[in-house]
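During the no-cost extension, the postdoctoral fellow (Dr. R.K.) reprocessed legacy sequence entries with the updated structure-token encoder. One reprocessed record is reproduced below for audit purposes.
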Amino acid sequence: MPNPHYNILFLCTGNSARSILAEALVNHLAVSRARFTGYSAGSRPRGEVNPHALALLARTGIATDGLRSKSWDEFAAPGAPKMDFIITVCDSAAGEPCPYWPGQPMSAHWGMPDPAAVTGSDEDIRKAFAETMQVLRRRIELLASLPLATLDRMALQGRVQEIGSR
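Re-encoded structure tokens follow.
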């Protein structure tokens, strides 16, 4: 029997940096690409993807086609892809009342600092974005390595939430 395929939605307030990086990584990494399709959205989308996020993705050979800042309402609407996992990557989005997600997806919080809030030199900003992407990559790889089909819902919920502390 083939492995099931899962949809994962990364949420952040502005959907311009962290959640965008996570979406692109899930859809790029060989370890997760066969098992997951990544999406991202925001509670109050900025309307544009952070140029530093796009530059980092391009420098590392990750496709940026189709990436856009969008509202989480798109994923709660009829006809939207059914989500299996909802992961918040910023503290403010984690504390907001979320829309109803059809199918009762697994949820977790993987909070991390916003690289878009970093000030300083271009090198400081590039470093902040690279560190954020490195943390996201490690967490996505950990998620992809879980034996999803063999864990009961409570055990899986705990494991996915635990990844956010790494």
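The radius of gyration is 15 Å. Strands lie at 6-12, 36-42, 85-88, 106-109. The remaining legacy entries will be reprocessed before the final report is submitted.
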